[in-house]
Amino acid sequence: LLEIIDATPQKPTPLTGTTIGDACTVYETPADEFEIRRWSLAAGTEHKVTPDNRPAIVLMTKGRVDLVWEGGSEALRQGDALFVPAGLERYALRAHEDSMLFEASVSIQG
User: Fold this and answer.
1) Which residues contact 55 (CB under 8 A, 6 or more apart)?
2) What average pLDDT does the structure give for the chain?
3) How confident is the model at residue 110, as a pLDDT?
4) CB of 101 within 8 A of CB of 59?
5) How do residues 5-59 score in pLDDT, each as one tens digit?
6) Which has the closest alpha carbon to 21: 33, 34, 39, 6?
7) pLDDT for the residue numbered 109
8) Torsion of Cα atoms, 23 then 53 then 93 then 104, to 10°
9) What is the reported pTM?
10) Distance (Å, rounded) from C-alpha 20 to C-alpha 84?
């Protein structure tokens, strides 16, 4: 592993994001293989997500959200993490209170 990474200390470069709709910001990372999405959800809102057959990891950093799909749901609170499999065609994020979560997924461009 040490042969393929550079551990030289560097000043990090903040990522700039592109806002999609009223709740999602997409950040392209220096690694072409994945992207990060930040969801800022107002209490009482629902946002439908179509993951384009890409697996993702969801990290809750604030609030309380239900991730709902056909046939099931999972309640998420601050500090929770969830793996979303590639085969899940669509799901909804239902915010019970002002919430923020991050979604790391394979990039469409990658």
Assistant:
1) 83, 84, 85, 86, 105, 106
2) 91
3) 45
4) yes
5) 888 998 988 888 999 988 999 998 888 888 899 999 999 999 999 878 889 999 9
6) 39
7) 60
8) -60
9) 0.82
10) 20
Share of the chain above pLDDT 90, in %: 64
**Which residue, 57, 54, 67, 63, is CA-closest to 109?**
54
Q: Quick one: which of 43, 42, 77 has its CA closest to 62? A: 77
Q: Which two tokens stand for residue 26?
A: 């997409």
Provide φ and ψ at 53, rounded to 5°: 55, 40
Angle at the Cα of 37 from the Cα atoms of 17 and 12, rounded to 5 degrees: 55
CA gap 44, 109 in Å, rounded: 33
Q: Which residue has the tokens 């999602």?
A: 24
The residue type found at 49 is V
Smallest Cα–Cα separation from 56: which of 1, 110, 103? 103
* CB-CB neighbours of 17 under 10 Å: 15
